[in-house]
Amino acid sequence: MAEEEEIVETDPYCTSDRFAAKNGIKAIEVGEDYSVCIMPIDETCLNGISIPMGGCYFTLGDFSFGVASHYIKNNMVTMNSQIDFIASAQVGDTITARCELVPCTSKKIARYEITMNDQNGKLLALMHVTGYRRSHH
Questions:
Q1: Strand ranges of the sheet holding 94-102, from the earlier edge strand across to the other edge
Q2: Candidates 3.10.129.10, 3.40.50.300, 3.80.10.10, 1.20.58.2140; correct CATH number of 2-133?
Q3: How would residue 6 be classed by pLDDT, with cut points 50, 70 and 90?
Q4: How far apart are CA 136 and CA 24, in angstroms?
Q5: 121 and 86 in contact (C-beta within 8 Å)?
Q6: How many Å separate Cα 125 from the centre of its chain?
Q7: Which of 91, 103, 114, 131 has the smallest C-beta neighbourhood within 10 Å, fewest atoms?
Q8: Stretch 72-92: mean pLDDT, rounded?
Q9: How high does pLDDT run on average in the chain?
Q10: Is 109 helix (H, G, I), strand (E, B) or coil?
Q11: Whose CA is closest to 59, among 34, 87, 81, 88?
Q12: What single-letter DSSP state applies at residue 121?
């Protein structure tokens, strides 16, 4: 794990994402077409009914997609994202997002699935992202 953490720390995508950094989101593992990212839940994450705002999960999932899809080449943009909220995290929890490429035969379109669990393994959200591989000019 130490080698992977070193790679994550030097990945420009991870270190230049100011919004993720401001919200405590970190990539803890990254490889070709996958990533594992975490986000701590604190009082600032809560919405009007005292559960984490859906945007917290969406931001974590979007960041984890970005980390996974930019690991080798920086040429993927989001075409579509869809999220299902299954359960709520609580203040003090840490959400872990695991993002993996879904096998596909297209050279331009990629699908990723992101599962988000609390520290006890409880499923909180499931997200699907469709990405488009841009051509470099």
A1: 26-31, 34-40, 94-102, 109-117, 123-133, 76-85
A2: 3.10.129.10
A3: very low
A4: 31
A5: no
A6: 11
A7: 103
A8: 90
A9: 88
A10: strand
A11: 81
A12: -
